[in-house]
Amino acid sequence: xxxxxxxxxxxxxxxxxxxxxxxxxxxxxxxxxxxxxxxxxxxxxxxxxxxxxxxxxxxxxxxxxxxxxxxxxxxxxxxxxxxxxxxxxxxxxxxxxxxxxxxxxxxxxxxxxxxxxxxxxxxxxxxxxxxxxxxxxxxxx
Length: 141
Prior knowledge:
This protein is mainly α. The protein has 6 helices and no strands. The chain is globular, with a radius of gyration of 15 Å. The termini are close together.
């Protein structure tokens, strides 16, 4: 279960991170900066982390989501295609909803709460995350 969760969390996290990075590079919308931002967290927020450690922090969250996803199907829910999609959507919707608190608490420049284009990019990235989460689980299982 942990190995499955790490695999699906890694693949999904990489897809989301690369998408956000690409969007930020092409459009200038700081969605990647928002995704990787930890500057508001006490103690660790004041450190200028290298990109590799920002990615690690991002992947830790994705690993937790991936492990939870695998756990649910190994111990709680019947494994049907509908249930796999439903859980991927629910977990990803929770992750996508972090746009608001991450934006409010960020010290670095991030997209505004009212930036509809940035929100759309953020949501598209998280849809890609949900698809990758479900498809990675299907492939590994």
